[in-house]
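User: Could you go from structure to sequence for me? I need the amino acid at each position, not a summary. Structure tokens:
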């Protein structure tokens, strides 16, 4: 199993975060706080009318104050529960939502690149992750 001490885990999470932030449009909340991929994931899953346990879990953690921290916790939750590919795929289903959040260079806007990314993420479902949540 992959644990918190694994170098591969840190590399994987950094790459996932890079993908989710690459060419992400800058958006701000009503109070001026910069939105991040966490907000994209929440909105994407809400549009699919999916009540995601990972979203509920992360929002229940009082220690997490920033969208970036919540996004990282969500990625870890999804890795542990083998839900990362499915969760991301649900967020990528709506082309209008994608265009609202990402500029044209985002790999998520390319059907071929999106399929390759999701294929790789589905392969991670075979890996056991034992991470502190």
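Assistant: Here is the amino acid at each position, in order:
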């Amino acid at each position: 199993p992959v644990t918190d001490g694994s170098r591969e885990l840190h590399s994987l999470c950094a790459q996932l975060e890079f993908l989710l932030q690459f060419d992400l449009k800058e958006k701000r909340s009503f109070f001026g706080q910069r939105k991040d991929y966490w907000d994209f994931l929440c909105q994407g899953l809400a549009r699919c009318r999916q009540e995601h346990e990972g979203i509920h879990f992360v929002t229940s953690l009082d220690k997490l104050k920033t969208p970036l921290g919540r996004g990282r916790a969500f990625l870890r939750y999804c890795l542990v529960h083998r839900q990362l590919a499915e969760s991301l795929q649900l967020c990528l289903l709506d082309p209008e939502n994608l265009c609202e959040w990402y500029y044209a260079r985002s790999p998520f806007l390319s059907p071929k690149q999106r399929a390759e990314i999701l294929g790789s993420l589905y392969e991670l479902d075979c890996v056991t992750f034992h991470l502190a949540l």
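One structural detail worth keeping in mind: The chain has one domain: 2-130.
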